[in-house]
Amino acid sequence: MMTKSGNDGNGLPAPARSSGEGSRVLRAGFIPLVDASVLIAAVEFGFARKEGLVLELVKDVSWANVRDRLAFRQFDIAHMLSPMPVASMLGLGSNPSPTITPFSLGKGGNAITLSTRLFERMKEAAGLSETASALENARALASVVEAMKRRGENLPTLGMTYPFSSHNYEFRYWLAAGGIDPDRDVKLVVVPPPLTSDALAAGAIDGFCVGAPWNMVASERGVGRIVAAKQDIWPSAPEKVIGMRPEWAEGHPETVSRLIVALDAAARWCDRSQNHDALAETLADARYIAAPVDIIRRVLAGQFNLDAKGNRRDIDDYFIFQSGFANYPRPSQALWIYSQMVRWGQCDLNVAGTKSAASAFRPDLYRTALGNENAPSGSDIRMEGDEDGDRFMDGHVFDPSHLAEYVRGFAVGRASGDATNDEEI
């Protein structure tokens, strides 16, 4: 195990320091979630310092704040939701300042939690077992929603973290796979991640999709039941990334490369289970997540208490910080995000949008820093969800070269594109 003053090396040469940029101080915004681990470890365990960087981490309260502070140059880089750079390059949302990512922060970490009251209704309505699958849970919720409509009850209010978020698209994907229209059968609202458990306890919402550790915080308080994890919906779904303004990246190429080398080393360190005790203790600190260290440690291990009744589930590789090229910003994943924006009516499908969405993920900067030998082989535009262990929960396969056909293939969706033919990449 490493101490905070050391490092374990990553076997990669640091980028040449010839541009005169010198030592850099980077202000980085983050949200208190376990998927900020790589960024936090880069600071606390010396990986940034080894590359001549000083990272000043600033804890923020919402993704909208992080977006705005990056746009207004209060941050140099930021811990961001993977759809945020895509949305920015498409000009979506308020203040859509161009943003790119050269580095993903890993895979996994999200889950869907419903109130214990709503889950009990699902069990009664559908004869649901305690070991029901994510799809069975979604279908059981659909039966409850139909009953609520017949009785004139208020439909469930469900929280997610941001309109352009993996949580929103994963929640919608799960709901739609069960036969629920997210825009007609439930009410989706934005709730900051640290407030989700309290909102559920207060009855302000009936469920949420959010990153760790807040799902297990709710289940251990006895106010929620975890009904699906990110791995159930699509294991390779892109999660959080490092966002930066494109002009800043162009003006600081050496700093970007040094940052990627530092984050790569930190991600490798975070992946090693022998380092998880030290990582959990660091994350639990009030400066970062401010959650119980034992919950964070179990989340890192993929050991879940689904509720307060003793029902448990172990999820292998619930968090993957580096292995399997988890940090590679693959443009086909950006295009999948774009497909979901089109599916739910956030934007149109056209050639210009396709190019803009793909441009948000920058594998060229990753390769410049780490070399082609440390990047995946093959095309950066590939089929997604077509391999064993990486399937979508409803069996769909994403072919980026047939975006229009893919979006039209769903029974539930609000797709409003001007494309009538498949878009070729």
Automatic annotation (TrEMBL):
Query: Cell membrane: present as a keyword of the record?
Result: yes
Q: Which UniProt keywords apply?
A: Cell inner membrane, Cell membrane, Membrane, Transport
Q: Does the keyword Membrane apply?
A: yes
CDD domains, alphabetized:
PBP2_NrtA_CpmA_like
What superkingdom heads the lineage?
Answer: Bacteria
The record ties this protein, via Gene3D superfamilies, to:
Periplasmic binding protein-like II
Major localization class? membrane
Q: Where is this region: Disordered?
A: 1-20
Pfam families xref list = NMT1_2
Q: Name one GO cellular component term.
A: endomembrane system
Instruction: Fetch the SUPFAM superfamilies from UniProt.
Output: Periplasmic binding protein-like II (SSF53850)
Q: Where in the cell is it found?
A: Endomembrane system
* InterPro entries xref list: NrtA/CpmA_ABC-bd_dom
- Cited PANTHER family: ALIPHATIC SULFONATES-BINDING PROTEIN-RELATED, BLL4572 PROTEIN
Protein name, per record: ABC transporter substrate-binding protein
Write down the species.
Answer: Rhizobium tubonense
